[in-house]
Write a structure and sequence with these properties.
Elements lengths: L1 H15 L5 H24 L13 H30 L4 H31 L11 H7 L3 H69 L6 H20 L5 E3 H19 L3 E7 L7 E3 L3 H11 L8 E10 L2 E8 L14 H14 L4 E6 L5 E8 L5 H6 L12
Parallel strand pairs: 2-4
Antiparallel strand pairs: 1-3, 4-5, 5-7, 6-7
Helix pairs in contact: 2-3, 3-4, 3-6, 4-6, 6-7, 6-10, 7-8, 8-9
Amino acid sequence: MAQPMETVGAMAENRASRRLTRGEWAAIVGFWLFMAVLTAANRLLDPRRPSGLQPVSASVPIALALVEALVWAAVTPFVFWLVRRAAVMEGRRAAQGALLAVGAVGVSMVVDGVFDGARAVLLGLPGQHNVFTNPVGTLTHLWFLREMIVYCGMVAAGVAREYSVRYRVRQQEAARLQAETAQLQAQLAEARLQALRSQIDPHFLFNTLNAVSALVERDPRGVRRMIARLSELLRHSLDGAAEPVVTLRQELEFADRYLEIMRIRFQGSLEVQTRVDDGVLDALVPSLVLQPLVENAVKHGVGRQRGVGKIEIEARREGDRVVLRVRDNGPGLDAAAPAREGVGLRNTRERLAQLYGDAGGFALRPAQGGGVEAEVSLPWRPAEAAAAARTPAPPLASAVAG
């Protein structure tokens, strides 16, 4: 599998470097025009010129330098193409050397012949070593060595360009792969959150249905009220199923609807107190982060408490964090059986880790005065004003008995 992948990569790099960019064309033409200026100035100002050239007009050296520059500018893309073809033969050094050597001789002889013809026309001199009229003499006397030196410089420039193009292509490929990796990681994280959310929904539903079934014979009217509240909860849960985070205002509303069902179940033996700091209601929190904490307090705290059960919900801002606490007055944690965390609390831990990493915190500990306190700590992230404006204020639970 490695060889085909390398071949595809080489083909992609070859396609990317096939054409010169406008900037490269401008650089080639500009370089050779600059060389033409230097050459013309040298020929006009050099006092060592042959005496036979003294009567020649000043425009002739300039024209000759321009012709040479334009010829080299036209030849440069062809030399770059030879370098690119040699680069494709990666691993075949002999073939690469042969291609560049044949190109060196051919290009140098042709360019030398063009220059010789131009000098003959502009200076009125007979051609001395024109490859088109005397190819054998040109080859045997090596009259094209000066052009070959220039060709070698162009090959070096072509090799530098080839490496630059390959580096640029690999950078683009690395950036593309990095973007795809980030996208896949985001999709994976979203899928994990969705899986955790889909896990908590049926768990919450089954526990609530069990609470409903406990009152079927004792309080049919209360059961009807519980079923109506449960349908509202399910509708609220389905509406926000695609949202990993919601405002604390929405989360408290959902928890209050759940507690209303529990109040009906406990028939006067459940009190709920909610304390929320000003300005925290619009903070973003994970969807269904409070419900498992409240459910755990009901099941393991209030459900085991003789007499009136109490649940306290607290939300406050502490620096750059939002802290949510749920307390109950139940029997507390059992040191002999510390595994009080069920599906809901384990799910909460995993979702916090998935959303916030080390920045999210969850703790379950004994509460002062008895019972258990569950605490969630999150980074402070306020919702947008427009989103907050569209969210209706929830009927926060106050101290209620029954």
